[in-house]
Amino acid sequence: MMEFIRERAKGLVAIAIIGLLCLTFLLWGIESYISAAQQVIVAKVNGEEIPLAEFQKSFDRMRSRAQSEQGAEYDADLWTQESTKQKALDALIDERLVYQLIDQSRLRLSHDQITQFIANAEAFQVDGKFSADRFKQIAQSMGLSEAGVEKQVRLDLAQQQLRAGVSLSAFSLKGEAEELAQLLDQKRDVAYAMIKPAEPASVTVTDEEISKFYDTHQESFRTPEMVAVEFIELKLEDLKSEVKVEESALNEYYEAHKAQYTAPEERSVNHVLVRVKRNAPEAEVAAAKLKAETLRALIAAGGQTIEQVAREASDDVGSKAEGGATGFFPRGVMAPEFEEASFALKVGELSQPVRTDFGFHIIRVKEARPGGLKPFADAKADVEAAYRTEQAETLFFERAEQFTDAVNEHPDSLSAAGEQLNLKPATLGLSTRDALTTRFSTGVASAAWEPEVLNEGLATAPIEIGSTRLVALRVTTHEPSKVPSLAELKDTVTEQLREQKARDAAKARGDALVARLQKGEAVDALMAAEKLEWVVVKGANRESADLNRALARAAFRVALKDAGASSYFGQMLGTGSYAVVLVSNLDLPKAETLEGRKLDVIQRDTERVRMMAAWRDYTTQLRETGAVKTYPKAL
Residue 172: which H helix or E strand, with range? Predict the structure, then answer.
């Protein structure tokens, strides 16, 4: 196009073109062209545009929140996936729909409400008091002005009010919790016989069957597309060895980070629990307390150690086998009454019975660790590790910039980039996309399949893996996906066909037995004739160790009308075996025997799920009735 203009834009034509361009810039200004080019829209919500910049801010906030909440479990690769970006955009659209509704409905909060909320928010406090400096810091970290934070708080509180109005319309009845608890705690008798498939090697197959099986299942034999790659990698862990460590630097780091080396006071105790519910009748409470006092007297008199009494008489299943040992714990972990007694006792001292929500405890302090600042000598190894990491992070960020420049300067040769960085390129043989994801990350695997990387031999741009690795690679060999010929796969196809025929034969035999049992044949006689072992598990629950997981799930899916009902059915298992199953003797616990605390948890959880569903349905309705258009390619 530009060549065409250069050849023809001479004389009056050129003057006319230049004149038109000048007139355009005079009338509208060049800024309008620049701003128009920069304004990328990712969605429109009822005519209101959501710019890419706003989406990116929202996405970054969501990612930062996930990182802080998930800690070591945070998956950086997840946030590079298109599906994650789409979910983030959907959340932003839902938020915009709600804000529009708030505005239309004239939901308002007073200035005093906003001020009071900000003043009382822990995020803005230092030493329990509101800090203006802290407020400014958080505003800056969010990329907002102080007025912007107040506006966001106003919108968030209004949204909470709306959400509460919608969600609190959902509720759960106690009767529903009882029914669900009965279903969860039900027991059944489950009897079964296993029909194992024949050994594949003993199954006869013909060439015609092999060919037909191959033709029918060709796609299952397809080999994935693969690439071999050359790569260079910058890793934070490798840079730690480059850090020079001097005693004076470690001392300075220790002095500046003393809070990290201050340990809380801890206790290790043995205890005996006599279980009784907090709301139990007075007679039960008195009996439990008397038992606890009796056990304490036995320990205090030296008749038995607290460890012996805990193993024989404690109701705490978790610590009983360990003689009631808790291990070391700081404040804020145990029940308040248990903690108060544990930290008030001296080592070796035995408590009086201590009442908690679980019952009465007898506590003896086994060992105490005083809190306080670790001496430098004791903390030195940790200080050095932390110092190396900090210094390596600085080196990493410096080298990362050099890494990017070197790769961009030599996109067709990682060897040249490696020489500049003192990094030796490594190679990885033919690998699938999944293998590259496992070795590196989803982002790296996706980049390897970019057209210019896959087909032109160019290196990828530097790709971050979390915050501690940087990778660039180029494809050296590309092997497309294909289905190998039957001649190449004959052994594999034959083996799979034999396994399939063995499983099919086991299922056919099992189905025939189930049909005969359903018609009324005696199970003992039939199993004896078929030379199968009939295993009976009485009073099985959903977690019975005596039942295969798949078999247990199938057994509890069968509907039994009443306690006297029974049902035969067949179940194929992942092992290839086929189970012939009888389910009978339904035993539902009576409502009055159910644990009150468990019912409360079930009712609360059910209510929470329904509240979430009510809000989700509400926002879905807003979206369906509104005019929403997205532009996913712009993300």
Answer: none
The length of the chain, given as a count of residues = 635
Q: Quick one: 498 exposed, middle or buried, by C-beta within 10 A (0-12, 13-18, 19+)?
A: buried
Cβ atoms of 356 and 344 within 8 Å: the answer is: no
Q: How confident is the model at residue 231 (pLDDT cuts 50, 70, 90)?
A: very high
Instruction: Indicate the residue type of 241.
Output: S
pLDDT, tens only, 394-403: 999 999 999 9
Q: Which residues contact 240 (CB under 8 A, 6 or more apart)?
A: 388, 389, 392
Q: Where are the alpha helices (DSSP H) in 263-335?
A: 282-300, 306-313, 317-320
Contacts of 335 (CB under 8 A, 6+ apart): 356, 357, 358
Q: Residue 341 and residue 312: Cα distance in Å, rounded? A: 23
- CB-CB contact of 563 with 187 (8 Å): no
pLDDT digits (tens, 9 = 90+) for 359-398: 999 999 999 988 888 889 989 999 999 999 999 999 999 9
| CA 66 to each of CA 62, 72, 82, 86: distance values in angstroms, whole numbers, following the listed order | 6, 11, 17, 16
When pLDDT is cut at 50, 70 and 90, the band that residue 490 belongs to is very high
Q: What is the pLDDT of residues 118-172, one digit of tens each?
A: 888 887 888 778 888 788 877 776 667 778 888 888 888 888 888 888 888 888 8
At which residue do the structure tokens 């009978």 appear? 584
Q: Cα separation of 36 and 28, whole Å?
A: 12
Helix, strand, coil % over all residues of the chain, rounded to 5 = 60, 20, 25
Handedness of CA 365, 371, 377, 383 (dihedral sign): positive
Helix (H, G, I), strand (E, B) or coil at 103: helix
DSSP 3-state of 474: strand
